[in-house]
From TrEMBL:
InterPro entries: Lipogen_MT_Stabilize_sf (IPR053719), Spot_14 (IPR009786). GO terms for cellular component: cytoplasm; nucleus. It comes from Gallus gallus (Chicken). Its main location: cytoplasm. This is MID1 interacting protein 1. The lineage of its organism: Eukaryota, Metazoa, Chordata, Craniata, Vertebrata. It holds the Pfam family Spot_14. Keywords: Cytoplasm, Nucleus.
Amino acid sequence: MQICDSYSQKYSLFNAMNRFIGAVNNMDQTVMVPSLLRDVPLLLGELDAAGAVCPEREAAPGGAYFSRRDMYSHYVLLKSIRNDIEWGVVQQAAGEEAARKKDKLGGGPAEEAEAEEDLEQQFHYHLSGLHTVLSKLTRKANVLTNRYKQEIGFGSWGQ
């Protein structure tokens, strides 16, 4: 029974979140000077190993552009996601929430019954997707940590 339990725990969302948080904490403790990560590109092979290749440039909220392949942007992204998991996500504005609820209530009783029956399927779909994303982010945090060690000249440090 022990083997079966450990196999199913591998796919536990709770364990996936713990692995991700642990990898980001390790990254955070290893990266002593985050500004050294600026303008240091992650190689395409490293991004592929982490499970995601990002577009070359993405618009920032202020209209400025920043490179998604720079290690610092990945560092900030991973820390931000960790904080969202640990502390929660800021709720939507009350006006947006009210409009969204009004749109949902527009359906009749038949549509509501279909939605209730479909909840389990939606839950499993999103749970699977969340597990996949967390696994990719965990690999990305580990890749960034190892690359930082190489950049500062401690390739075998901590291993």
